[in-house]
Specification:
The protein has 14 helices and 26 strands. The chain starts with a helix and ends with a strand. Strand 4, helix 6 and strand 5 form a beta-alpha-beta unit. The chain is an alpha/beta fold. The strands form six sheets. Strands 1, 2, 3, 8, 9 and 10 form a six-stranded mixed beta sheet that branches. The radius of gyration is 27 Å and the shape is globular. The N terminus is likely disordered.
Protein backbone atom coordinates (compact mmCIF):
# COMPACT_ATOMS: atom_id res chain seq x y z
CA UNK A 1 0.00 0.00 0.00
CA UNK A 2 1.50 3.36 -1.02
CA UNK A 3 1.77 6.28 1.35
CA UNK A 4 -1.21 8.15 -0.13
CA UNK A 5 -3.51 5.13 0.19
CA UNK A 6 -2.37 4.51 3.75
CA UNK A 7 -3.16 8.11 4.70
CA UNK A 8 -6.60 7.87 3.11
CA UNK A 9 -7.35 4.63 4.98
CA UNK A 10 -6.20 6.13 8.26
CA UNK A 11 -8.39 9.19 7.73
CA UNK A 12 -11.38 6.96 6.94
CA UNK A 13 -10.89 4.96 10.14
CA UNK A 14 -10.69 8.13 12.20
CA UNK A 15 -13.81 9.51 10.54
CA UNK A 16 -15.77 6.31 11.16
CA UNK A 17 -14.70 6.29 14.81
CA UNK A 18 -15.73 9.92 15.29
CA UNK A 19 -19.02 9.58 13.48
CA UNK A 20 -20.06 6.21 14.93
CA UNK A 21 -23.09 6.38 17.22
CA UNK A 22 -22.67 5.60 20.91
CA UNK A 23 -23.32 2.04 21.98
CA UNK A 24 -27.04 1.46 21.95
CA UNK A 25 -27.02 0.31 25.58
CA UNK A 26 -25.03 3.30 26.89
CA UNK A 27 -27.33 5.29 29.19
CA UNK A 28 -26.49 8.64 30.77
CA UNK A 29 -29.22 10.18 32.89
CA UNK A 30 -29.31 12.96 35.43
CA UNK A 31 -32.33 12.93 37.72
CA UNK A 32 -33.72 14.68 40.79
CA UNK A 33 -36.47 14.04 43.33
CA UNK A 34 -38.12 17.27 44.47
CA UNK A 35 -39.90 16.24 47.67
CA UNK A 36 -42.51 18.81 48.76
CA UNK A 37 -44.33 18.75 52.09
CA UNK A 38 -47.03 21.42 52.24
CA UNK A 39 -47.68 20.29 55.83
CA UNK A 40 -44.08 21.13 56.78
CA UNK A 41 -45.57 22.92 59.79
CA UNK A 42 -48.86 21.08 59.98
CA UNK A 43 -51.84 23.39 60.23
CA UNK A 44 -49.95 26.64 59.49
CA UNK A 45 -51.50 28.05 56.30
CA UNK A 46 -49.09 31.00 56.23
CA UNK A 47 -46.18 28.61 55.86
CA UNK A 48 -48.15 26.52 53.37
CA UNK A 49 -48.48 29.62 51.19
CA UNK A 50 -44.79 30.45 51.56
CA UNK A 51 -43.90 26.97 50.32
CA UNK A 52 -46.04 27.37 47.21
CA UNK A 53 -44.79 30.91 46.54
CA UNK A 54 -41.08 30.53 47.32
CA UNK A 55 -40.32 26.85 46.75
CA UNK A 56 -42.81 25.40 44.27
CA UNK A 57 -43.60 28.30 41.91
CA UNK A 58 -39.90 29.12 41.22
CA UNK A 59 -39.15 25.53 40.23
CA UNK A 60 -42.19 25.43 37.94
CA UNK A 61 -40.95 28.58 36.20
CA UNK A 62 -37.43 27.12 36.06
CA UNK A 63 -38.54 24.09 34.07
CA UNK A 64 -40.84 26.12 31.83
CA UNK A 65 -37.72 28.06 30.83
CA UNK A 66 -35.86 24.81 30.07
CA UNK A 67 -38.22 22.59 28.06
CA UNK A 68 -35.55 19.92 27.44
CA UNK A 69 -35.11 19.24 31.15
CA UNK A 70 -37.29 16.90 33.19
CA UNK A 71 -37.78 16.22 36.90
CA UNK A 72 -39.80 14.29 39.46
CA UNK A 73 -42.08 16.55 41.53
CA UNK A 74 -43.27 14.63 44.59
CA UNK A 75 -46.14 16.05 46.63
CA UNK A 76 -49.34 15.04 48.37
CA UNK A 77 -52.72 15.39 46.71
CA UNK A 78 -53.53 18.01 49.33
CA UNK A 79 -50.78 20.27 47.95
CA UNK A 80 -52.10 19.92 44.41
CA UNK A 81 -55.61 20.74 45.60
CA UNK A 82 -54.55 23.77 47.62
CA UNK A 83 -52.25 25.11 44.91
CA UNK A 84 -55.12 25.02 42.42
CA UNK A 85 -57.41 26.81 44.89
CA UNK A 86 -55.01 29.45 46.26
CA UNK A 87 -52.61 29.95 43.36
CA UNK A 88 -54.44 29.07 40.13
CA UNK A 89 -51.75 30.64 37.90
CA UNK A 90 -49.01 28.53 39.52
CA UNK A 91 -51.18 25.46 39.08
CA UNK A 92 -51.87 26.34 35.43
CA UNK A 93 -48.14 26.52 34.77
CA UNK A 94 -47.51 23.20 36.51
CA UNK A 95 -50.24 21.57 34.48
CA UNK A 96 -48.55 22.94 31.37
CA UNK A 97 -45.39 21.05 32.36
CA UNK A 98 -47.48 17.95 32.95
CA UNK A 99 -49.35 18.25 29.67
CA UNK A 100 -46.16 18.40 27.66
CA UNK A 101 -44.87 15.37 29.64
CA UNK A 102 -41.79 17.25 30.77
CA UNK A 103 -42.07 16.39 34.46
CA UNK A 104 -43.52 13.48 36.41
CA UNK A 105 -46.03 13.94 39.22
CA UNK A 106 -45.12 11.60 42.10
CA UNK A 107 -47.94 11.35 44.64
CA UNK A 108 -48.44 8.36 46.94
CA UNK A 109 -50.71 9.84 49.62
CA UNK A 110 -53.29 12.63 49.89
CA UNK A 111 -51.82 14.00 53.12
CA UNK A 112 -48.18 13.60 54.16
CA UNK A 113 -49.17 10.66 56.31
CA UNK A 114 -47.12 8.42 58.55
CA UNK A 115 -48.86 5.61 56.69
CA UNK A 116 -46.65 2.88 58.13
CA UNK A 117 -48.36 3.34 61.50
CA UNK A 118 -51.79 2.29 60.19
CA UNK A 119 -53.43 -0.59 58.30
CA UNK A 120 -53.55 -0.78 54.52
CA UNK A 121 -57.18 0.31 54.21
CA UNK A 122 -56.19 3.76 55.48
CA UNK A 123 -53.85 4.19 52.51
CA UNK A 124 -56.58 2.96 50.16
CA UNK A 125 -58.78 5.77 51.48
CA UNK A 126 -55.92 8.18 50.86
CA UNK A 127 -55.69 6.83 47.31
CA UNK A 128 -59.44 7.45 46.86
CA UNK A 129 -58.87 11.09 47.79
CA UNK A 130 -55.90 11.34 45.45
CA UNK A 131 -57.78 9.84 42.54
CA UNK A 132 -60.62 12.31 43.05
CA UNK A 133 -58.09 15.15 43.14
CA UNK A 134 -56.36 14.00 39.95
CA UNK A 135 -59.71 13.65 38.19
CA UNK A 136 -60.95 17.06 39.33
CA UNK A 137 -57.71 18.72 38.20
CA UNK A 138 -57.25 16.73 34.99
CA UNK A 139 -53.86 15.33 36.00
CA UNK A 140 -52.18 11.99 35.38
CA UNK A 141 -49.83 10.68 38.04
CA UNK A 142 -46.64 8.81 37.18
CA UNK A 143 -45.87 5.24 38.23
CA UNK A 144 -42.94 6.36 40.40
CA UNK A 145 -43.20 6.30 44.20
CA UNK A 146 -41.47 8.35 46.84
CA UNK A 147 -43.19 9.10 50.14
CA UNK A 148 -43.23 11.41 53.12
CA UNK A 149 -40.02 10.92 55.14
CA UNK A 150 -39.00 8.36 52.53
CA UNK A 151 -41.08 5.64 54.24
CA UNK A 152 -40.21 2.42 52.41
CA UNK A 153 -40.70 -1.28 52.97
CA UNK A 154 -41.40 -4.51 51.17
CA UNK A 155 -45.15 -4.36 51.81
CA UNK A 156 -45.35 -1.34 49.53
CA UNK A 157 -44.62 -3.50 46.47
CA UNK A 158 -47.92 -5.38 46.63
CA UNK A 159 -49.81 -2.14 47.23
CA UNK A 160 -48.00 -0.46 44.32
CA UNK A 161 -48.87 -3.25 41.90
CA UNK A 162 -52.52 -3.02 42.94
CA UNK A 163 -52.64 0.73 42.37
CA UNK A 164 -50.79 1.28 39.11
CA UNK A 165 -47.29 2.06 40.41
CA UNK A 166 -44.19 0.38 38.96
CA UNK A 167 -41.03 2.02 40.39
CA UNK A 168 -40.00 2.88 43.93
CA UNK A 169 -37.36 5.47 44.75
CA UNK A 170 -35.77 3.52 47.62
CA UNK A 171 -33.62 5.78 49.85
CA UNK A 172 -29.91 4.99 49.71
CA UNK A 173 -29.55 5.79 53.44
CA UNK A 174 -32.25 3.29 54.38
CA UNK A 175 -30.66 0.52 52.34
CA UNK A 176 -27.30 1.23 53.96
CA UNK A 177 -29.02 1.23 57.36
CA UNK A 178 -30.02 -2.40 56.88
CA UNK A 179 -27.15 -3.57 54.65
CA UNK A 180 -24.14 -1.32 55.23
CA UNK A 181 -21.61 -3.61 53.53
CA UNK A 182 -23.54 -3.94 50.26
CA UNK A 183 -21.83 -0.94 48.67
CA UNK A 184 -21.97 -1.82 44.96
CA UNK A 185 -24.69 0.22 43.29
CA UNK A 186 -26.53 -1.49 40.46
CA UNK A 187 -28.47 0.44 37.81
CA UNK A 188 -31.77 -0.73 39.29
CA UNK A 189 -33.32 -3.58 41.26
CA UNK A 190 -36.26 -5.92 41.39
CA UNK A 191 -38.09 -5.19 44.64
CA UNK A 192 -40.76 -7.84 45.19
CA UNK A 193 -42.11 -7.36 41.67
CA UNK A 194 -41.61 -3.62 41.18
CA UNK A 195 -38.53 -1.77 39.96
CA UNK A 196 -36.39 0.07 42.50
CA UNK A 197 -33.70 2.71 42.19
CA UNK A 198 -31.44 3.61 45.10
CA UNK A 199 -32.54 7.20 45.45
CA UNK A 200 -29.73 9.70 45.82
CA UNK A 201 -26.98 7.25 44.88
CA UNK A 202 -25.15 7.66 41.58
CA UNK A 203 -24.47 4.80 39.19
CA UNK A 204 -21.31 4.17 37.17
CA UNK A 205 -21.74 0.64 35.89
CA UNK A 206 -20.68 -1.37 32.90
CA UNK A 207 -21.01 -5.02 31.90
CA UNK A 208 -21.16 -7.01 28.68
CA UNK A 209 -20.38 -3.97 26.57
CA UNK A 210 -23.08 -1.87 28.18
CA UNK A 211 -22.51 1.25 30.26
CA UNK A 212 -24.89 3.09 32.59
CA UNK A 213 -24.29 6.40 34.33
CA UNK A 214 -26.81 7.95 36.69
CA UNK A 215 -26.22 11.34 38.27
CA UNK A 216 -28.34 12.84 41.05
CA UNK A 217 -28.52 16.62 41.20
CA UNK A 218 -31.07 16.82 44.02
CA UNK A 219 -32.70 14.44 46.49
CA UNK A 220 -34.01 16.30 49.50
CA UNK A 221 -36.78 18.56 50.77
CA UNK A 222 -37.60 20.61 47.68
CA UNK A 223 -38.14 23.69 49.84
CA UNK A 224 -34.34 23.88 50.22
CA UNK A 225 -33.37 24.05 46.52
CA UNK A 226 -34.53 27.48 45.29
CA UNK A 227 -33.96 29.08 48.71
CA UNK A 228 -30.30 28.12 49.04
CA UNK A 229 -30.97 25.78 51.95
CA UNK A 230 -33.40 27.93 53.97
CA UNK A 231 -36.29 26.08 55.60
CA UNK A 232 -39.88 27.36 55.80
CA UNK A 233 -39.21 28.14 59.49
CA UNK A 234 -36.61 30.78 58.53
CA UNK A 235 -37.38 34.48 58.10
CA UNK A 236 -35.11 34.55 55.02
CA UNK A 237 -37.10 31.78 53.33
CA UNK A 238 -37.27 33.00 49.74
CA UNK A 239 -35.71 32.55 46.32
CA UNK A 240 -31.90 32.72 46.31
CA UNK A 241 -30.92 33.87 42.78
CA UNK A 242 -27.33 32.70 43.18
CA UNK A 243 -28.41 29.21 44.25
CA UNK A 244 -30.76 28.98 41.27
CA UNK A 245 -28.08 30.22 38.85
CA UNK A 246 -25.59 27.67 40.15
CA UNK A 247 -28.12 24.87 39.79
CA UNK A 248 -28.98 25.98 36.27
CA UNK A 249 -25.29 25.92 35.29
CA UNK A 250 -24.87 22.47 36.83
CA UNK A 251 -27.68 21.03 34.73
CA UNK A 252 -26.47 22.81 31.60
CA UNK A 253 -22.99 21.35 32.08
CA UNK A 254 -24.42 17.86 32.52
CA UNK A 255 -26.52 18.21 29.39
CA UNK A 256 -23.45 19.38 27.48
CA UNK A 257 -21.66 16.27 28.73
CA UNK A 258 -24.31 14.04 27.15
CA UNK A 259 -26.62 13.47 30.10
CA UNK A 260 -30.37 13.39 29.62
CA UNK A 261 -31.91 15.64 32.28
CA UNK A 262 -34.93 13.46 32.82
CA UNK A 263 -37.18 11.56 35.21
CA UNK A 264 -36.65 8.38 37.17
CA UNK A 265 -39.35 6.67 35.12
CA UNK A 266 -37.58 7.59 31.87
CA UNK A 267 -34.29 6.26 33.25
CA UNK A 268 -35.79 2.91 34.29
CA UNK A 269 -37.57 2.56 30.93
CA UNK A 270 -34.28 3.22 29.15
CA UNK A 271 -32.64 0.44 31.18
CA UNK A 272 -35.40 -2.00 30.34
CA UNK A 273 -35.38 -1.09 26.65
CA UNK A 274 -31.61 -1.61 26.57
CA UNK A 275 -31.99 -5.09 28.07
CA UNK A 276 -30.32 -4.24 31.40
CA UNK A 277 -31.51 -6.76 33.98
CA UNK A 278 -32.36 -5.72 37.55
CA UNK A 279 -30.40 -6.86 40.58
CA UNK A 280 -32.14 -7.80 43.85
CA UNK A 281 -31.99 -5.83 47.06
CA UNK A 282 -30.97 -7.74 50.17
CA UNK A 283 -33.52 -8.00 53.03
CA UNK A 284 -34.79 -4.73 54.48
CA UNK A 285 -37.35 -3.74 57.10
CA UNK A 286 -39.79 -0.82 57.17
CA UNK A 287 -38.08 2.52 57.67
CA UNK A 288 -37.43 6.09 56.51
CA UNK A 289 -34.83 8.05 54.55
CA UNK A 290 -32.79 9.36 57.53
CA UNK A 291 -32.77 6.25 59.72
CA UNK A 292 -29.54 6.92 61.61
CA UNK A 293 -30.87 10.28 62.80
CA UNK A 294 -34.34 8.95 63.59
CA UNK A 295 -33.67 5.33 64.67
CA UNK A 296 -35.85 4.50 61.71
CA UNK A 297 -39.52 5.17 62.54
CA UNK A 298 -38.91 5.38 66.27
CA UNK A 299 -38.63 9.18 65.97
CA UNK A 300 -42.35 9.30 65.10
CA UNK A 301 -43.48 6.35 67.20
CA UNK A 302 -42.11 6.66 70.72
CA UNK A 303 -39.15 9.05 70.63
CA UNK A 304 -40.32 12.14 72.54
CA UNK A 305 -38.23 15.30 72.45
CA UNK A 306 -40.28 17.73 74.50
CA UNK A 307 -42.55 17.38 77.48
CA UNK A 308 -45.57 18.38 75.40
CA UNK A 309 -45.04 15.66 72.74
CA UNK A 310 -47.75 13.01 72.65
CA UNK A 311 -46.64 10.33 70.17
CA UNK A 312 -48.62 7.42 71.55
CA UNK A 313 -51.67 9.53 72.34
CA UNK A 314 -51.82 10.91 68.79
CA UNK A 315 -51.11 7.59 67.06
CA UNK A 316 -53.49 5.52 69.22
CA UNK A 317 -56.14 8.23 68.88
CA UNK A 318 -55.86 8.06 65.09
CA UNK A 319 -56.32 4.28 65.29
CA UNK A 320 -59.46 4.70 67.39
CA UNK A 321 -60.79 7.11 64.78
CA UNK A 322 -59.95 4.82 61.84
CA UNK A 323 -61.90 1.95 63.41
CA UNK A 324 -65.01 4.15 63.47
CA UNK A 325 -64.33 5.24 59.89
CA UNK A 326 -64.10 1.61 58.76
CA UNK A 327 -67.33 0.80 60.61
CA UNK A 328 -69.03 3.69 58.78
CA UNK A 329 -67.78 2.42 55.43
CA UNK A 330 -68.98 -1.08 56.29
CA UNK A 331 -72.52 0.00 57.15
CA UNK A 332 -72.70 2.16 54.00
CA UNK A 333 -71.73 -0.88 51.91
CA UNK A 334 -74.36 -2.93 53.76
CA UNK A 335 -77.01 -0.38 52.79
CA UNK A 336 -75.83 -0.46 49.17
CA UNK A 337 -76.14 -4.24 49.02
CA UNK A 338 -79.69 -3.91 50.24
CA UNK A 339 -80.64 -1.44 47.52
CA UNK A 340 -80.60 1.72 49.65
CA UNK A 341 -79.67 5.13 48.25
CA UNK A 342 -76.40 6.12 49.94
CA UNK A 343 -75.42 9.15 47.82
CA UNK A 344 -75.61 11.58 50.74
CA UNK A 345 -73.69 9.23 53.02
CA UNK A 346 -71.04 8.71 50.33
CA UNK A 347 -70.43 12.46 50.17
CA UNK A 348 -70.13 12.64 53.94
CA UNK A 349 -67.73 9.72 53.92
CA UNK A 350 -65.30 11.54 51.59
CA UNK A 351 -65.13 14.35 54.15
CA UNK A 352 -64.52 11.78 56.90
CA UNK A 353 -61.58 10.10 55.19
CA UNK A 354 -60.13 13.49 54.28
CA UNK A 355 -60.05 14.41 57.98
CA UNK A 356 -58.51 11.06 58.84
CA UNK A 357 -55.75 11.43 56.23
CA UNK A 358 -54.90 14.88 57.54
CA UNK A 359 -54.91 13.60 61.14
CA UNK A 360 -52.34 10.96 60.20
CA UNK A 361 -49.78 13.56 59.06
CA UNK A 362 -46.28 12.63 60.17
CA UNK A 363 -45.26 16.03 61.55
CA UNK A 364 -47.55 15.79 64.59
CA UNK A 365 -45.28 13.15 66.15
CA UNK A 366 -41.83 13.95 64.65
CA UNK A 367 -39.24 15.28 63.99
CA UNK A 368 -39.88 17.99 66.58
CA UNK A 369 -43.60 18.72 66.58
CA UNK A 370 -44.86 21.93 68.10
CA UNK A 371 -48.10 22.00 70.15
CA UNK A 372 -50.17 23.33 67.25
CA UNK A 373 -49.20 20.34 65.10
CA UNK A 374 -50.23 17.93 67.83
CA UNK A 375 -53.61 19.63 68.16
CA UNK A 376 -53.91 19.64 64.35
CA UNK A 377 -53.89 15.83 64.33
CA UNK A 378 -56.15 15.51 67.36
CA UNK A 379 -58.70 17.94 65.92
CA UNK A 380 -58.89 16.21 62.55
CA UNK A 381 -59.01 12.75 64.18
CA UNK A 382 -61.96 13.90 66.30
CA UNK A 383 -63.68 15.28 63.20
CA UNK A 384 -63.16 11.97 61.38
CA UNK A 385 -64.49 9.96 64.33
CA UNK A 386 -67.50 12.26 64.83
CA UNK A 387 -68.29 12.22 61.11
CA UNK A 388 -68.13 8.43 61.06
CA UNK A 389 -70.46 8.16 64.06
CA UNK A 390 -72.90 10.54 62.37
CA UNK A 391 -72.96 8.28 59.30
CA UNK A 392 -73.52 5.20 61.48
CA UNK A 393 -76.37 6.96 63.30
CA UNK A 394 -78.10 7.83 60.03
CA UNK A 395 -77.60 4.30 58.74
CA UNK A 396 -79.12 2.81 61.90
CA UNK A 397 -82.15 5.07 61.40
CA UNK A 398 -82.55 3.69 57.88
CA UNK A 399 -82.24 0.16 59.29
CA UNK A 400 -84.69 1.03 62.11
CA UNK A 401 -82.45 -0.31 64.84
CA UNK A 402 -81.09 1.40 67.96
CA UNK A 403 -77.87 -0.63 67.91
CA UNK A 404 -75.89 -2.59 65.34
CA UNK A 405 -72.98 -4.96 65.50
CA UNK A 406 -70.74 -4.01 62.57
CA UNK A 407 -68.24 -6.63 61.44
CA UNK A 408 -65.65 -4.85 59.28
CA UNK A 409 -64.07 -8.17 58.32
CA UNK A 410 -67.11 -9.91 56.86
CA UNK A 411 -69.15 -6.81 56.06
CA UNK A 412 -72.07 -8.11 58.12
CA UNK A 413 -74.31 -5.70 60.04
CA UNK A 414 -76.51 -7.24 62.75
CA UNK A 415 -79.35 -5.10 64.20
CA UNK A 416 -79.62 -5.26 68.00
CA UNK A 417 -82.34 -4.13 70.38
CA UNK A 418 -79.88 -3.30 73.14
CA UNK A 419 -76.17 -2.88 73.70
CA UNK A 420 -74.36 -5.92 75.09
CA UNK A 421 -72.74 -5.80 78.50
CA UNK A 422 -69.15 -4.53 78.57
CA UNK A 423 -66.51 -7.21 78.06
CA UNK A 424 -65.02 -8.47 81.30
CA UNK A 425 -61.25 -8.65 81.67
CA UNK A 426 -59.86 -12.17 82.02
CA UNK A 427 -59.07 -13.24 85.56
CA UNK A 428 -55.36 -12.71 86.33
CA UNK A 429 -53.25 -15.81 86.27
CA UNK A 430 -49.73 -17.03 85.63
CA UNK A 431 -48.35 -15.69 82.36
CA UNK A 432 -46.50 -18.02 79.96
CA UNK A 433 -43.71 -15.43 79.64
CA UNK A 434 -41.87 -13.01 81.89
CA UNK A 435 -42.59 -9.31 81.36
CA UNK A 436 -40.20 -6.58 82.48
CA UNK A 437 -40.54 -2.82 82.82
CA UNK A 438 -37.40 -0.72 82.65
CA UNK A 439 -37.06 3.01 83.23
CA UNK A 440 -38.17 5.67 85.67
CA UNK A 441 -41.58 4.52 86.82
CA UNK A 442 -43.60 5.70 89.81
CA UNK A 443 -46.28 3.01 89.77
CA UNK A 444 -46.81 -0.16 87.80
CA UNK A 445 -49.28 -3.03 87.52
CA UNK A 446 -48.95 -5.95 85.11
CA UNK A 447 -51.73 -8.51 84.78
CA UNK A 448 -51.97 -11.51 82.49
CA UNK A 449 -55.09 -13.61 82.10
CA UNK A 450 -56.11 -16.48 79.85
CA UNK A 451 -58.47 -15.07 77.20
CA UNK A 452 -59.16 -18.17 75.11
CA UNK A 453 -57.39 -21.16 73.62
CA UNK A 454 -53.67 -20.41 73.39
CA UNK A 455 -54.38 -16.73 74.03
CA UNK A 456 -53.52 -14.45 76.97
CA UNK A 457 -54.51 -10.86 77.57
CA UNK A 458 -51.81 -8.65 79.07
CA UNK A 459 -52.56 -5.29 80.71
CA UNK A 460 -49.69 -3.00 81.62
CA UNK A 461 -50.60 0.07 83.68
CA UNK A 462 -47.80 2.39 84.74
CA UNK A 463 -46.93 5.98 85.55
CA UNK A 464 -43.73 7.49 84.17
CA UNK A 465 -41.61 10.14 85.90
CA UNK A 466 -38.55 12.31 85.27
CA UNK A 467 -39.44 12.60 81.58
CA UNK A 468 -36.28 14.56 80.71
CA UNK A 469 -34.00 11.56 81.39
CA UNK A 470 -36.31 8.57 81.12
CA UNK A 471 -35.55 5.71 78.72
CA UNK A 472 -38.61 3.49 79.11
CA UNK A 473 -38.83 -0.10 77.85
CA UNK A 474 -41.48 -2.81 78.19
CA UNK A 475 -39.63 -6.06 77.43
CA UNK A 476 -40.69 -9.57 76.45
CA UNK A 477 -38.35 -12.57 75.98
CA UNK A 478 -37.42 -13.57 72.44
CA UNK A 479 -36.28 -17.16 71.90
CA UNK A 480 -34.93 -16.91 68.33
CA UNK A 481 -32.52 -14.60 66.52
CA UNK A 482 -35.20 -13.88 63.97
CA UNK A 483 -37.37 -10.86 63.21
CA UNK A 484 -40.93 -11.93 62.40
CA UNK A 485 -43.55 -9.31 61.60
CA UNK A 486 -46.15 -8.05 59.13
CA UNK A 487 -44.69 -5.31 56.90
CA UNK A 488 -46.67 -2.10 56.58
CA UNK A 489 -49.45 -2.35 53.94
CA UNK A 490 -49.56 -6.17 54.25
CA UNK A 491 -51.79 -6.74 57.28
CA UNK A 492 -52.59 -10.31 56.23
CA UNK A 493 -49.04 -11.67 55.84
CA UNK A 494 -46.15 -12.56 58.12
CA UNK A 495 -42.54 -12.48 56.96
CA UNK A 496 -39.52 -13.75 58.85
CA UNK A 497 -35.80 -13.04 58.50
CA UNK A 498 -32.86 -14.32 60.53
CA UNK A 499 -31.14 -11.39 62.18
CA UNK A 500 -27.97 -12.63 60.52
CA UNK A 501 -29.42 -11.66 57.13
CA UNK A 502 -29.02 -7.99 58.08
CA UNK A 503 -25.86 -5.95 58.42
CA UNK A 504 -27.29 -2.94 60.26
CA UNK A 505 -25.43 0.33 60.12
CA UNK A 506 -26.29 1.17 63.72
CA UNK A 507 -25.32 -2.36 64.80
CA UNK A 508 -27.90 -2.30 67.53
CA UNK A 509 -31.67 -1.78 67.58
CA UNK A 510 -34.13 -2.59 64.81
CA UNK A 511 -37.40 -0.69 65.11
CA UNK A 512 -40.49 -1.76 63.14
CA UNK A 513 -43.91 -0.04 63.17
CA UNK A 514 -46.09 -3.22 62.93
CA UNK A 515 -49.39 -1.48 62.04
CA UNK A 516 -51.38 -4.69 62.54
CA UNK A 517 -49.73 -4.95 65.96
CA UNK A 518 -47.97 -8.28 65.42
CA UNK A 519 -44.41 -9.36 66.15
CA UNK A 520 -42.93 -12.82 66.70
CA UNK A 521 -41.21 -13.94 69.89
CA UNK A 522 -40.06 -17.32 68.57
CA UNK A 523 -41.25 -20.86 69.19
CA UNK A 524 -44.66 -20.15 67.65
CA UNK A 525 -45.38 -17.33 70.11
CA UNK A 526 -46.59 -13.94 68.93
CA UNK A 527 -47.17 -10.66 70.71
CA UNK A 528 -49.88 -8.31 69.44
CA UNK A 529 -50.22 -4.74 70.69
CA UNK A 530 -53.74 -3.33 70.84
CA UNK A 531 -52.96 -0.25 68.76
CA UNK A 532 -55.89 1.63 70.29
CA UNK A 533 -53.83 1.73 73.49
CA UNK A 534 -50.20 1.44 72.37
CA UNK A 535 -48.94 2.35 68.91
CA UNK A 536 -45.19 2.81 69.30
CA UNK A 537 -42.64 0.78 67.36
CA UNK A 538 -41.46 -2.67 68.36
CA UNK A 539 -37.73 -2.94 68.94
CA UNK A 540 -35.95 -6.18 68.01
CA UNK A 541 -32.42 -5.52 69.25
CA UNK A 542 -29.63 -7.51 67.66
CA UNK A 543 -27.68 -8.05 70.88
CA UNK A 544 -30.53 -8.82 73.30
CA UNK A 545 -32.93 -11.76 73.39
CA UNK A 546 -35.97 -9.51 73.82
CA UNK A 547 -38.67 -7.68 71.92
CA UNK A 548 -39.55 -4.35 73.49
CA UNK A 549 -41.89 -1.38 73.25
CA UNK A 550 -39.78 1.71 73.90
CA UNK A 551 -40.43 5.34 74.75
CA UNK A 552 -37.62 7.87 75.04
CA UNK A 553 -38.42 10.78 77.38
CA UNK A 554 -42.15 10.04 77.60
CA UNK A 555 -44.32 12.64 79.37
CA UNK A 556 -45.02 12.16 83.06
CA UNK A 557 -48.42 10.51 82.93
CA UNK A 558 -50.37 7.27 83.40
CA UNK A 559 -50.33 4.74 80.54
CA UNK A 560 -52.69 1.80 80.18
CA UNK A 561 -51.58 -0.64 77.48
CA UNK A 562 -53.28 -3.81 76.32
CA UNK A 563 -51.56 -6.66 74.47
CA UNK A 564 -52.43 -10.20 73.44
CA UNK A 565 -50.06 -13.15 73.56
CA UNK A 566 -50.80 -15.99 71.13
CA UNK A 567 -48.88 -19.23 71.66
CA UNK A 568 -49.99 -21.57 68.85
CA UNK A 569 -48.48 -20.15 65.69
CA UNK A 570 -48.84 -17.58 62.93
CA UNK A 571 -52.30 -18.45 61.60
CA UNK A 572 -54.02 -17.81 64.91
CA UNK A 573 -51.84 -14.76 65.57
CA UNK A 574 -52.81 -13.19 62.25
CA UNK A 575 -56.49 -13.82 62.99
CA UNK A 576 -56.23 -12.13 66.39
CA UNK A 577 -54.24 -9.21 64.98
CA UNK A 578 -56.80 -8.71 62.22
CA UNK A 579 -59.81 -8.80 64.53
CA UNK A 580 -58.19 -6.47 67.06
CA UNK A 581 -56.35 -3.93 64.92
CA UNK A 582 -57.50 -4.13 61.30
CA UNK A 583 -61.11 -5.35 60.88
CA UNK A 584 -62.88 -4.95 64.19
CA UNK A 585 -66.35 -6.20 65.11
CA UNK A 586 -67.93 -3.58 67.39
CA UNK A 587 -71.39 -2.51 68.51
CA UNK A 588 -72.56 1.03 67.78
Amino acid sequence: MNKTAACLLSALVLCLAACAPARSADIKYSVMMLHYNLQYVAGDEVIENKIIEHAFAPMVDFFLEHPSWGADFEMQGYMLEQTAIRYPEVYRKFKQLMDRKQVDLVSFHFSDQLFMAYPRRDMEWSEMLNQKTFKDLGLTRSGTVFTQEGQSGQGMADYMLANGFDTICYPKNLYRYWQKSDTETMPYYDFFGVSAVQCGKGVDWSANGRAVKLNWTFFNDAELLPTGGATPYAEEFGVDPEAMANYEKRLADLEADGYVIGTIGQYVNALKNAGVKPATLKPVLDGDWQPIDTHSLFRWMGDYHFQYERDNEVLAGNVQARHRVLAAETIINHLKKNGRDTAALDTQFMDVIRNLAIAQVSDSTGWTPWPGEIEYSKTHAAAAADGALAIIKQAKTLLKTPFARIDAGTGDVLPLDSAPAPRAEPAPGKCPIDITLQGKIKKQEITCGEAGDHQWEIRVRFKTSEWHSNNFRLMFPRTEDVVTYSPALTDDKIVSYPLASFDPENGDWMYIPAPNGLVGLGGGMFLIKDTRTVNVTFNVPVGEKVVSLDMLKPPNRVFDWRLILVTDGPEHALQVADEMNVHRKDVY
